[in-house]
Amino acid sequence: MKKNVLLGSFATLCAVTALTFTVVSCGKGGGGNGAPAASGSATTSPSTSSLTGDIRIDGSSTVFPIGRALAQEFMGKNPGVKVTVAESGTGGGFKKFIAGEIEIATASRTIDEKEIAQLKEANIEFIEIPIAFDGLTVVVNPKNTWANSLTTAELKKIWEPGSTVKTWKDVNPIFPASPIKFFSPGTDSGTFDYFTEAINGKKKEQRNDAQTSEDDNTLVTGIAGEVNSIGYFGYSYFEGNKDKLKAISIDNGNGAVAPSPESIQNNTYAPLSRPLFLYVSKKALDSNPAVQAIIEFFFSEGTGLVGQVGYVAFSAEDYTAVKAHFDTKQSGSVFAGKKTVGMSIQQILKG
Amino acid sequence: MSIAPPPPRISDKAVVMQAQVGKFSRIPLRRRVTDKAFSVLCMIASLVGVALLGLLLYRIGLDGYKRVSPAFLTTFDNWRPHLAGVKAALVGSIWVMVLTALFSVPIGVAAAVYLEEFNRRKNRYSEFIQLNISNLAGVPSIVYGILGLTIFVRWLALGQSVLAGALTMSLLILPLLITVTQEALKAVPPSLREGSFALGATEWQTIYRQVLPAASPGIMTGIILSMSRAIGETAPLLLVGAAGFITFVPQNLKDGFTVLPIQIYSWANMPEPKYQEAAAAAIIVLLVSLLILNMAAILLRIRASKKLRA
Amino acid sequence: MALIQGTGPTFTRVNNRSPRRLKEGVIRYLCLACALISVVTTFGIIWILLIEGLHFFQEVPILDFLLGTKWSPHMNPVSYGVLPLVSGTAMIAIGSAIIAIPLGLMAAIFLSEYANVRVRSILKPLLEILAGIPTVVYGYFALTVVTPWLRSVFGQERVEIFNGASGCIVVGIMVLPLVCSLCEDALSAVPSTLREGAYGLGSTKFEVIRKIVVPSALSGIMAAFILAISRAVGETMAVTLASGNKPSMSMNPFEGIQTMTAYIVQITRGDTPSGTTAYYTLYAVGLTLFAFTFGMNIIARRLVKKFRQAYE
């Protein structure tokens, strides 16, 4: 009897493990070809520096892909520096920034006045660096053959608080009378804030019967799963799922413009291009040479990464202006508390 | 040396007796049918779980098997989705798990021993402690994250380190560990303790030499359950500051870290389908590590119960 | 200190030699200290939640919070009624308990009473693996398997893509191994003499289980149920993914809901500025959740005490 327990359970475990490792080795045979090339990136760069230090980056999950690419490429050139990137949300990132736990906070919205006040209280000076555009994309199901472009007025009609739009016909009489399902990013996301401000005119006001999710991939799942759906999120999620979704062109009075890297960069895709930010602690910048180096690295090589991770880079002139602004080491925010929707980066920087 | 009786399972004698009852019984048909139906129902119930496990593994295997390879285990995360690997997360998970076990197992077992053995006559105070423990088991993990962030990261100034992560995780699994250990201790027959006392052993000697060995298979179950919980937790470590992207492994207790579930969560949130694949592959890695952990623990459990019976 | 006085030795010591007694004492207090960590943890949690929650209650009247039926802290017009979140949490807890408790108990009975050693040694570790699958994975399982299945059975129009039922099912699956494992331990601990006695009186196995084994193990079984429900209440990631983030009082399981925990995740990952009332909802909801589980545990413990059957 006793032997049976031992043998029995051991045999089971062996069997299960063997099974699992079979799966593993299957993977090796099938898809292993691509994997060994893993060290191909910038990790083996000849020109390495002797810079050391820790850089902790935290904040918006929207900016996370840029932070990750920047950190990796920077560490490839500066193997002595340890960079970590986390995604606790813009609010969570600023909370850590205020507590002095991180050197760089990333944000998908401008810093809030309350956060500026808390930073002042904690005696932390910060420098604001806009780094890229995200183009908010309005999407529908690909089986939706009727809606190809919408005017901002139509969008407002659909999304404004107390909207009476229930079916597509309510938007435009030539559309079918099928009921719409609404999908929206989480109400505490920067995406929601920006979209409501740009389309409905007032921040944080929107019809209240939309399904919301913090996870843009679940929105993708939702819209891809409901024929009569409409929703919006960042451009990169559309680009990653082009086969399952259809983007709506936006008509802001000057004809319908489809979201694309070009139209977002030159501001013709209006009013839905929004800037993303880095906020750097001035103290860290002065005392930790690695922080200064990673920002310099962003302007010299990092801007090329932006497009590769699904966001839209500024024009070269815009980056020059941003860099010039950074070089003045002027602390504080030029974006906060301003209506910046539809303005170009240079316009905003000039005040 | 142990004088413990065999664990109280159905003895062979009972099986024989029952067989005899079955053979000569005048038990009415209805009762026998109910009996049979119930046994089948129970079997189906236990297979449901296994079937679901199969379905789950199948889904995940389908999505991720292409990416699992030695290279996947030995490379760091990468912003190019097809090059991303789990090295940092895997090593980080091991760090957190070992540290968590180191902190929580002695404390958890000691607390259970206090509540069940040193304090067999229940009073108001132990009732209060008990209430606390079962209540803590229901506190959502994310609240432990808030606690860990405030106490370990900020007050004790451990920073967003692997040590802070492990301490938070220890607090998280303690209630489960204590409760299960208590149940294991409860299952030890009082006669064992009485016998030991009668031979002149002190309380601690009785606990250490008789009760704990007799309860060890149950305690092992508790440890497996708790560690399984710890290895799969995401939310508290997200708050304590496990990084979504990191390309080094912790060298010491104060270093930054990430763990497998965080890596999975982070990848699953990415727009690129290649990252979804990597997430599925990381789940496979997590499940295999879990399996290895379980296997080790089960072997220990078997050894413990074998020693007990010898 | 009163705590320590209250706990005298249970058995008369035979041996009074003092070094040994000293050692016994030291060990005893060490164990007590370990047990007290749980109390410290509880007070730590309450303290933190209260301090931060106060910021919220300075802005929002407590009754508006507790009795309000509209939860919309981030969308104008703002409203801070927590009841929709409570109702969402209750739905998940009850729904998952309906799935996990009978299945888990029956699986435990099978493992402990029917299965032979070999079957048991296969099934038990398999179920324990289910317990270790990260909750995020269950969330994706809900989205890719459970919800499509529900929608094909009950109709695309009736079942929303995020729905309460899907959350109940995956959380039920998730706590199943916990229920099963703990119940099995409790059942196995029932002395075989009790069973043998009943067989001797001519009972069938089912009758022995129903009238002898389960009642004898009731304390452990109830403890398992409580832990399972507590876990379901506190479950976060799977529910967030499966059931969505739409706070609603609806009891229709096919509609999207939001639980208290899902809300906490939402805010900790979102972009809400720290220091605002909207941000402090995190702690107010945390506090509510804590009070919720605390009350539930007190009730449950009363029940267990009432049913507890001491044998030997």
Helical proportion of chain B, percent range: over 70%
Mean pLDDT of chain C: 82
Would you identify the regions of chain C where 5 or more consecutive residues have pLDDT less than 50?
1-14
Order of helices and strands of chain C: HHHEEHHHHHHHHHH
What would you say this structure looks like, in words?
The complex is a heterotrimer of chains A (about 350), B (about 300) and C (about 300). Chain A is of the alpha/beta class and about 350 residues long. Chain A has helices spanning about 1-30, 65-75, 90-100, 115-120, 150-160, 170, 190-200, 215-225, 235-240, 260-265, 280-285, 290-310, 315-325, 345-350; strands at about 55-60, 80-85, 105, 125-140, 150, 180-185, 210-215, 230-235, 245, 250, 255, 275-280. Chain A starts with a helix and ends with a helix. Residues about 1-45 of chain A have low confidence and may be disordered. Chain B is mostly helical and about 300 residues long. Chain B is about 75% helix and about 0% strand. In chain B, helix 7 (about 160-185) packs across helix 9 (about 205-230), helix 8 packs antiparallel against helix 9 and helix 9 packs antiparallel against helix 12. Chain C has about 300 residues and is mostly helical. Chain C has a two-stranded antiparallel ribbon. The model of chain C is unreliable at about 1-15 (pLDDT under 50). Chains in contact: A-B, A-C, B-C. The interface of A and C includes residues 16, 87, 203 and 211 of A.
Brief rundown of the structure:
The complex is a heterotrimer of chains A (351), B (310) and C (312). Chain B has 310 residues and is an all-alpha fold. Chain B has helices at residues 12-24, 29-64, 70-74, 87-118, 124-136, 141-155, 162-186, 190-198, 203-232, 235-240, 260-268, 273-309, and one strand spanning 245-246.
Features:
heterotrimer, A: 351 residues, alpha/beta, nine-stranded mixed sheet, three-stranded mixed sheet, 43% helix, elongated, C: 312 residues, mainly alpha, two-stranded antiparallel ribbon, 13 helices, 2 strands, 74% helix, 1% strand, globular, disordered N terminus
List the helices and strands and how they pair.
The complex is a heterotrimer of chains A (351), B (310) and C (312).
Chain A: H1 2-31, E1 53-59, H2 64-77, E2 81-85, H3 89-98, E3 104-107, H4 113-121, E4 126-140, E5 149-151, H5 152-159, H6 168-171, E6 181-185, H7 190-200, E7 211-213, H8 216-225, E8 229-234, H9 235-240, E9 246-247, E10 249-251, E11 256-257, H10 261-265, E12 273-281, H11 282-287, H12 289-308, H13 316-327, H14 345-350
Parallel strand pairs in A: 1-2, 1-3, 5-10, 6-7, 6-8
Antiparallel strand pairs in A: 3-12, 4-8, 4-9, 4-12, 10-11
Helix pairs in contact in A: 2-12
Chain B: H1 12-24, H2 29-64, H3 70-74, H4 87-118, H5 124-136, H6 141-155, H7 162-186, H8 190-198, H9 203-232, H10 235-240, E1 245-246, H11 260-268, H12 273-309
Chain C: H1 2-5, H2 18-59, H3 62-67, E1 71-72, E2 79-80, H4 83-114, H5 117-132, H6 135-154, H7 164-188, H8 192-200, H9 205-216, H10 218-234, H11 237-243, H12 260-269, H13 277-307
Antiparallel strand pairs in C: 1-2
Helix pairs in contact in C: 2-13, 4-7, 4-10, 5-7, 6-7, 6-11, 7-10, 7-11, 8-9, 10-13, 12-13
